[in-house]
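Could you help me review a protein record that somebody else here produced? Here is the record exactly as it was handed to me:
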Amino acid sequence: MRKPTPTRAAVLAPAALLAVSLLAACGGTSEADEADKPDASAEPITLTDATGAELTLDGPVDRIACLTMICVDALTEVGLTPVAYREALARDERYAGPDADMREITGGFGEENVEDIALATPDLVIGLAGAQDGLRAAVEAHAPLLLVDPRSWRDSVAFLRTIGELTGTEELADEKARAFTDRVAAAASSRSELTTLSMYGEPGSLGVDSVETPVGSLLAEVSDYPWPAGDDPFASVAVEQIAEVDPDVIFAQAFSASADAEPLSDRLASDPVWARLSATRQDRVVEVEAPVWATGRGTRSLGLVLDTVEKTLRK
């Protein structure tokens, strides 16, 4: 029996709680065997995910089912397409695209149809910690389940590098990771003094992307972003609490299944406190794409976020 020996490791930022160790196997296989078997010289990969669960892959994989958009995002960055997806955003032309050969995973959030996953025959399934933990037993009857929990844009960069390790696309993943990191650094070098806020929801049920979220941490790099996490990185907030800070610019996400849903700012227009906010009075409430801002989480999505932020702050 071949005994793997440690060779290298890729570790995500501590907040993401996802470590990847790569173990090299000794020996090899004949050319005849190569036609019928996976490459026996490939390095087994042992992972510990955001929940502390450990899983082992025989080597790099290319059949990945995505229960979360950061998975689709990262695969798109390295030129790969998931075999299955959950979020409709995956079929957007900026990601896998409308013609991509992918199976849709049906079911509610955290209650996805495992049969859809199984029919896609993935080598690995990637989901979101804190949301899809309860699927582990059912999913792992078909493929390992890796749960991630990105808490900052740096975690998103680290996850992209991890996808590179998992899929054998390290060089491209590193290139994309460096490019995005350099872009954030350039934006941060001319950091705006304006106070910003990324918020979402509906009247009576509003939330904030705190600094312990990918979007919030990104905004903190390029502007004044005084929104700490507290007990929840996606913190609930009342209009009165927003008024205490009185941000100069608000990026608003209206959650709705309808593309022509009423903008969040319009739904809040009748609130007298909202009407007195500086951002409201100066017409600096910017309605943004909720799917990209709320579920994207990866470097491609955060690049789209930064496009909007930089354009707004330069005005």
In short: Residues 170-189 form the longest helix (20 residues). The domain at 5-149 is CATH 3.40.50.1980 (Rossmann fold). The CA atoms of residues 85 and 128 lie 13 Å apart.
